[in-house]
Every structure is written in structure tokens, then in C-alpha cells.
């Protein structure tokens, strides 16, 4: 026996912080806060089962398990569990949430350019124009459309802030993005030329409601390899319920032929749909089948509406349960496809599995204000596109650069270290308190944790861990796709 193992297992041991799950007959641990996944063998599982009844010394564990496992194997299992911090000294203090602020000069990887704050629709739940808007986009001081000069300044800002990153991502957003199509055309040409001059590659994407997808626009999107996400909520009766023109007319009949033409012509990038779920439209399975099987989208992502709990379209607790059950059912379809090495377009499952595989352990809910920033039509830089134009959430401008003091204050205030309610949650490596914009709308503070989603997040993350474990047991080669 290794002497170091004997000396390190001499005191009383107790369970530390982890989340257990099972998949395809195997037992796993999701380690908190490291976000690592550990597959238990019989000896390790036996040690944990024995410690579940209370602290024990290594000698007591050896004695208890002597009829099933050799002394050497039990001690080795204890040492392995110590190394991953699944067990530890009974008197050791609980690990504090690390105060690991990002290093200075953290590179910007994605910039979202709000090329217009004007829209040709009047979607009831819209966070920009609806009841919960935080910026006056109708009578506010920002211009309705971003100028070419501001867009080009934004490109220079992105190339500078990207640091050593070989690839920079530029996303166009609105309002309705395509209302400012001429600036999109000029900006893509300028950005591609400037990126080549400084030895970088620029990738482009945009989000649109599809109402302005004319043939020349579609051709340009395809020729320039622009990634496209369509905001659409589902079949006719769903789409026309909340996504309407200013005169109240539904949009489904207008967007459907345009989307079909986009899917026919634009083959250089996969086309995805983004669905906003509300209390009125929670048929996740039906919406998914319509968008993928009947229309032909490559993938579909679902997001619960961002709104105050008082709104009639806000999702109540029963609605969250219904949404979760359908996510789980749709996720099982994704898993079945993955086991066959086939594509399945449920992007929520794919995205969560990728984070699990990569061992993502977040100090922040997302990359806003750090690797991701949004630019308003006047060139002011905000935490993300959802805060574009909000003075409270502005951290600089494309002309003058990032205000490092304001950025640092944001990073300190929004770090999970300052969210005590999250410190005992096993899902915090994946969630870290959630969306800042959701928190601002719901609680009045962007730094607040989204406590109304806690049960939902834990349940969905547990389901995805089971999917991950099943793939690890039955088709581990599939997981290599997430390494790219």
C-alpha cells in the first residue's frame, strides 16, 4: 500500500459538495464547484454509501467494507474521492465560493450591434417595446438607426478588444435588424476587409423576424455566409397570438413563404429558430415539430419570456412544470438521436450538454460585460444587447473604449461571490444566478439571482446530466463533437 494513502486517510471523513446522478446503470458525481464528472466504481460507491450515514474514519470504512472490497482498494477509493473533493476531513470548513475576478484585458469575443431600435412589429411581450422595457426606444435620445460611421467604429472597437483571439464574432440585432439593411451590407464588407488586414477572421450572424426577407436580402445572406436566427413562436395560431404588426394583424402568413425561401437558398450556414415561450404558448413539443418537420429549421431554441410576474403572459409555476416536462420529453428525443449519431434540433439540450462536457463552472451568469458586449445605435457600449441604450448599464463607447472602472464595478457586483443564495446550490456552476436582464426586470437589480427559476434550472440540469452519463456509457464518441 502507498504510505501517502495511509497517512492521508487517518482522520474522520465526511461527504463534501457534489450532486449524484445515475445513467444506464452507472453512478456518477457532478462535482461542485469544479463542474467535473466522476464515474463511481463499486468501491467508491460503497465508500460514499457508508459515509451517507455519517462521518467515519478510514479504518472504520475498511472494516465496514472488508467483506466486499480489499483494504488496498478501499484506501485507494478514499484517496480518489479525496482528490476530487467528494470526501474530506470532517472538521474542514466548507469551501468558500472563490472570488476569482477575470484578469485585466480579458478579450471580447462577441459584439452585438443594435443597428436599429425601431421595429415593424408590436409583439406584446417584447422586452424592448413592451410593458417591461427599460429604455425609451420611441422618444429616447438614441437615433433610430445606427450610422455607417458608428458601425465602422464598432468594428474597430471589436478588433481592438478581441486581443489575441484569431476569430471575432459580430452579431447584428434590432429592433428589426433588416430595417437597416444598407448598413449591414457596408459593415460586413468593411469588417471582413479590416479583419484580414489585422490577421483575424470575422464571423457574422443576425436575428430577424423574417418579415423583410426579400430575394435580394436572402441572396446576400447566403453569399456572405451570415448565420441567421429567426424569431418565430410556432404554428399560425401561436405566431399570430402575440407576434403581430402594429395594426394587430398576425405575421405567420407573411413570414412563412419568406422563411421557406431562405431555407431553400441559404445553404452556407444552418438556420435556427428562437421561440419565446409565454403562458399562452407552452406546447413545446408541438412547436418544435412544426418548426423542424413542417418548416425545416435546422435547430430550435426555447426561452421563457422575460417579464414581470404580474403580466398576463408571464409563466406561472404550473406553466414552468409543464414546460419542464416537455423539455424532458423533447430532450429524450435528442438523446435517442445522439445515441444513433444523428442530428436533433433541440438546441437547449445540445447547449447544456456542451457546457457539461467542457466542465463549465461560471462565476457569472453569462459573458455579458466581459466576452460579450452590446452596442447601441449611438455607439455606447452596454453589458449586452438587451441593455443597449440603458445609461445604468453602459460601460463605455466604441469611440472612447471601455470604462474600466465601470466594467470592474460590474464584475465585482455581479460575481457569484456576491449572491449568497447561490452558494449552497449544486447547479451554480451551470447557472451562476442566471440572466442579468431577467433579474433587472423581475427584481429591479441586474445583480440579483433569478430565484424564481431555481427549481427549474436544477431539474433541467439533472436531466441533462443523466443524458450525458448515458452517452458516456453507450456512445462516448458522440461527446467528442463538443471538443471542437
Describe the protein's architecture and organization.
The protein is of the alpha/beta class and 484 residues long. The protein folds into 2 domains: 3-89, Outer Surface Protein A, domain 3 (Alpha-Beta Complex), CATH 3.90.930; 110-404, TIM Barrel, CATH 3.20.20. Helix content is 39%, strand content 16%. It is built from 17 helices and 16 strands. The chain has helices spanning 3-8, 42-51, 58-64, 71-83, 148-161, 181-197, 215-223, 236-242, 252-265, 284-295, 317-339, 347-357, 404-414, 428-431, 436-443, 454-474, 476-479; strands at residues 12-15, 18-23, 26-31, 37-40, 56-57, 87-89, 110-114, 167-173, 201-208, 227-231, 271-277, 299-304, 372-375, 380-382, 394-397, 401-402. The strands form 3 sheets. Strands 12-11-10-9-8-7-13-14-15-16 form a 10-stranded mixed beta sheet. Helix 3 crosses helix 4, helix 5 (148-161) runs parallel beside helix 6 and helix 11 (317-339) packs parallel to helix 16 (454-474). The longest helix has 23 residues, at 317-339. The radius of gyration is 25 Å and the shape is globular.
Amino acid at each position: 500500500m502507498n504510505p501517502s494513502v495511509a497517512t492521508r486517510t487517518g482522520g474522520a471523513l465526511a461527504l463534501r459538495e457534489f450532486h449524484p446522478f445515475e445513467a444506464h446503470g452507472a453512478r456518477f458525481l457532478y462535482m461542485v464547484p469544479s463542474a467535473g464528472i466522476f464515474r463511481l466504481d463499486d468501491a467508491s460507491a460503497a465508500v460514499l454509501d457508508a459515509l451517507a450515514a455519517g462521518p467515519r474514519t478510514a479504518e472504520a470504512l475498511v472494516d465496514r467494507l472488508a467483506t466486499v472490497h480489499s483494504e488496498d482498494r478501499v484506501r485507494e477509493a478514499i484517496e480518489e474521492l479525496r482528490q476530487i473533493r467528494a470526501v474530506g476531513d470532517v472538521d474542514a470548513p466548507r469551501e468558500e465560493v472563490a472570488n476569482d475576478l477575470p484578469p485585466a484585458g480579458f478579450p471580447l469575443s462577441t459584439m452585438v450591434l443594435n443597428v436599429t431600435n425601431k421595429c415593424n412589429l408590436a409583439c406584446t411581450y417584447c422586452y424592448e417595446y413592451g410593458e417591461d422595457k427599460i429604455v425609451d426606444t420611441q422618444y429616447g435620445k438614441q437615433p433610430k438607426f445606427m450610422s455607417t460611421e458608428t458601425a465602422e467604429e464598432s468594428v474597430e472597437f471589436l478588433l481592438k478588444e478581441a486581443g489575441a483571439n484569431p476569430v471575432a464574432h459580430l452579431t447584428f440585432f434590432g429592433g428589426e435588424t433588416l430595417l437597416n439593411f444598407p448598413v449591414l451590407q457596408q459593415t460586413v464588407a468593411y469588417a471582413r476587409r479590416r479583419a484580414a488586414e489585422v490577421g483575424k477572421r470575422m464571423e457574422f450572424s443576425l436575428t430577424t423576424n423574417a418579415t423583410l426577407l426579400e430575394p435580394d436580402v436572402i441572396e446576400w445572406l447566403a453569399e456572405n455566409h451570415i448565420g441567421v436566427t429567426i424569431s418565430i413562436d410556432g404554428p399560425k395560431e401561436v405566431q399570430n397570438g402575440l407576434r403581430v404588426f402594429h395594426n394587430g394583424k398576425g405575421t405567420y402568413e407573411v413570414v412563412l413563404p419568406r422563411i421557406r425561401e431562405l431555407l431553400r437558398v441559404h445553404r452556407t450556414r444552418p438556420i435556427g429558430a428562437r421561440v419565446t415561450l409565454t403562458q399562452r404558448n407552452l406546447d413545446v413539443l408541438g412547436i418544435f415539430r412544426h418548426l423542424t418537420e413542417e418548416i425545416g429549421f435546422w435547430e430550435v431554441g426555447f426561452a421563457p419570456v422575460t417579464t414581470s410576474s404580474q403580466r398576463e403572459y408571464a409563466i406561472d409555476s404550473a406553466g414552468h412544470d409543464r414546460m419542464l416536462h416537455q423539455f424532458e420529453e423533447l430532450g429524450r428525443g435528442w438523446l435517442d438521436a445522439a445515441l444513433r449519431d444523428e442530428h436533433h434540433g433541440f438546441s437547449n439540450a445540445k447547449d447544456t450538454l456542451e457546457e457539461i462536457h467542457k466542465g463549465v463552472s461560471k462565476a457569472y451568469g453569462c459573458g455579458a460585460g466581459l466576452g460579450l458586449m452590446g452596442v447601441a445605435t449611438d455607439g455606447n457600449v452596454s453589458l449586452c444587447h438587451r441593455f443597449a441604450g440603458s445609461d445604468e448599464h453602459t460601460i463605455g463607447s466604441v469611440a472612447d473604449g471601455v470604462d474600466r472602472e465601470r466594467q470592474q464595478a460590474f464584475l465585482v457586483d455581479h460575481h457569484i461571490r456576491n449572491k449568497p443564495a447561490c452558494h449552497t446550490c449544486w447547479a451554480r456552476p451551470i447557472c451562476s444566478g442566471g440572466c442579468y436582464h431577467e433579474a433587472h426586470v423581475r427584481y429591479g437589480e441586474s445583480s440579483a439571482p433569478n430565484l424564481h427559476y431555481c427549481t427549474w434550472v436544477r431539474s433541467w440540469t439533472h436531466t441533462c446530466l443523466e443524458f450525458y452519463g448515458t452517452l458516456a456509457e453507450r456512445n462516448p464518441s458522440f461527446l467528442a463533437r463538443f471538443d471542437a
